[in-house]
Amino acid sequence: MPQGRRYRTEGRRGVVNAEHSVHGGAAAGRAAGTAGTGFGTVRVVLWLVAAVLAVRQAAAVLRHPPGERLTDLETWIGENGVLRVTGSLYDTGRFTGTPFAGLVLKPLARSAEQSLGIAWTFGTLLLVVALGLVAARALPGRVSRRTGLLAAPVAISLLMLSLPVRNSFSLGQTSIIPVLLVLLGCLVARGERGAGVLIGIGAALQPAVLLFVPLLWLTGRKRAAVTTTGVFAASTAVAWLVMPGDSWAYWVHHVAGAGLGERPDGLANQSLHGALLRLGLSGPLEVVVFIALAAVVVFLGLRRAVRYARDGQPLLAVALTGCVAIAVSPTAWQHQLLWVLLALVGRVGVQARDRLVWPAVVVLVMTLPGTMLLPNVGVLVPLRENAPLVAALAAACAVPFLTRTARYFEQPVPTEYARPVPARWRRIPLVPFWRRLFSRPNLLLEVLAIRVGFSVYTQIRLAATGGRETAEEHGRQIHSIERALGIDIELWFNHAVVNAKWAESFFNFYYSSFHFLVPLAILGVLYARRPADYRWARSSLAFATVLALVGFWLYPLAPPRLMPGLGFIDTAHGPQDLTNPDYGALTSLTNQYAAMPSLHFGWSLWCGVVIVVLAPKAWMKLLGALHPLFTVCAIVATANHWVLDAVGGAAVVGAGFGLTYLLAGPRRLEPRAAAPGKADPFPEGKGLAATRGTGDSAERTPAG
User: Fold this and answer.
1) pLDDT: is 353 or 304 the higher one?
2) In this model, does residue 13 exceed pLDDT 50?
């Protein structure tokens, strides 16, 4: 079969499969019984989530006054906008589109001016919905009825949450239009000429779309490729005739728009050109390196895109080509990065439990800023600054997506789950679908989850401020309760430590050094040696931290060192100016009033419990028990917490372990069966106390 016919057949087959999965399978649905009812509920919930996100995006724009909506629309309707300038579109440097874009989008901008941005906002909303529907109908491979029905609301929700769409909404950009035109041309249009017209218009609006011409040509769609080129040339020629000065400025003076808009070395430019400039390269050397790297990316990316197109995965092929366009464009602003999000349709991994790794990474990169994904560590700064570009390059050139002919494309190796030890109470676990594994979780996802979780924790902690007066009032309440109970030892202990300089130095060091180090070390050891216990310990710590955030939010509390008139000495941070509302050496870094409960003590208690329960040696258990003792002494000696703060920390940690038990059942799991001819490696009664050293390849007991 000729390549062109094969590509068209496979591409349409993917759409037909999606349509069949949506419209067919009625008998299977009827046979599902109560399960079908539950599925219908899930579908309604997902559509409600998509609707809520859409309304939220529209409301986020329309709640601003008319003059502050769609800030990039000022390039169209502002005092010096496209609709008002008498000279070139590019005199102000604010307009970055092609002359053809300026020509055809003026009517849309005029309607936005007349409707104060309302029509533009809802038009963008409709474009996003259409984009999600087209992508959902082009999923690769055989798609079940349930997957087909759930794909559309999930796709629309992800698009609404993504940084490119959020930018397009808030700025009033038109970058969704070229992406939608390409998807319609490659996946929906019936005739080759119609496809070429759609993609050609997209290229006239965004020249990087021309990279789809070689994709069309190499996959046998030569008529579409020729039509695309012709429509692009005709559209550009019309713009030359109507606006010759602007066309000269864009295509010649600025070399296809390079240098327009923001600084090309800014973080917003997620292209190879922008990354090289941020790395310090400039001048002819940077140009040469950029051209060389771009050539490699184009060769590898288009080669892979052609392979997946011929394999019957047209949506993945389109996404990879778009990722190539991001990398090799002189400028690729954040609102132009939708191609990366579309690349999550590719399937990666033989094991079923590995299938979500790539989609999860893409979703995190495309919905969260780089500062939440990676810490501000020197060696990681280039990766953090260029996270979308790295994801685009990985998708285009490196990620090993499975082909439809691969053995495990449709049926990956299923995940085998462990069987928990029966609980004392019949109704535990309360969440029966919380299935446990012996094997390690994916390291990349764990690191990302820990980092993102810590970033969210930090943001909420910073936001949980109730004001100085409220925090000091709560501090007086805590002090009064402690005096009534006879445990107000903070002032005495603080001054005693200050008078013993060795003790002051020791507790200052202990307070500032082990808060993060010890929990991370324990999680690392458990991940490497005791993966099942790692899951139990990590979940308990997460629950405790979330409960602590509730305490920070509901009960802002001034620590002893920030209570005026009580005579406490801040040994860790130095003297505080209590007459300044923003006093505190760390005010700009952390919430000074997030004291109840004390996570310094709570996390140390979690460490102690985990070590005492799991450590094989008595001296290890002793060290584990001493850690929370030293920590409570440190937080009181340095005047950073009240004694009752430590009690609160112990409460949330106890609740964290309790929630894990209630939801997932006991920590221990039933021992795995020994291989024939070998002794049982897990003696009766030991449970997972003997699972250290096991890895992903270890034999697992399937759930009953």
Assistant:
1) 304
2) no
The predicted-structure confidence for 422-469, as pLDDT tens digits, reads as follows 888 888 888 877 888 888 888 888 888 888 888 888 888 777 766 778
d(CA 176, CA 336): 8
Query: What percent of the chain shows pLDDT beyond 90?
Result: 38
Angstrom distance (rounded) from CA 61 to CA 631:
48
Concatenate the DSSP letters of all residues of 551-596 into one string. HHHH-----GGG-TTS----TTT----TTSTT-STTTTTS-TT--S
Say how many residues make up the chain: 704
565 residue type, one letter = G
Tokens of 571: 């040994």
Nearest to 392 by CA among 306, 304, 456, 282: 304
* Alpha-helix runs per DSSP H in 464-489: 468-485
| Range in 255-264, 477-486, 660-669 with the lowest mean pLDDT | 255-264
Tokens of residue 214, six digits: 């070689």
State how far the Cα of 181 lies from the Cα of 208, in Å rounded to an integer: 13
Residue whose C-alpha is closest to residue 361's, from 401, 395, 397, 411 = 395
Q: Which residue has the higher pLDDT, 260 or 8?
A: 260
Query: Residue 197 in contact with residue 281, Cβ under 8 Å?
Result: no
In whole angstroms, what is the distance from residue 497 CA to residue 469 CA? 29
Residue 459 structure tokens:
């943001």
3 state DSSP class of 400 = coil
Q: Which residue has the higher pLDDT, 674 or 153?
A: 153
**Spacing of C-alpha 425 from chain mean position:** 38
Q: What is the Cα–Cα distance from 42 to 48, expressed in whole angstroms?
A: 10
CA distance to 72, 438, 666, 668, 685, per residue, from 423 (Å): 59, 18, 6, 10, 14
Exposed/middle/buried for residue 91 (C-beta within 10 Å: 0-12, 13-18, 19+): middle
Is 117 strand, coil or helix?
Answer: coil
Task: Give me the sign of the Cα torsion angle 272, 176, 143, 186.
Answer: negative
Candidates 550, 522, 515; CA nearest to 537 is: 522
pLDDT at 154 over 70: yes
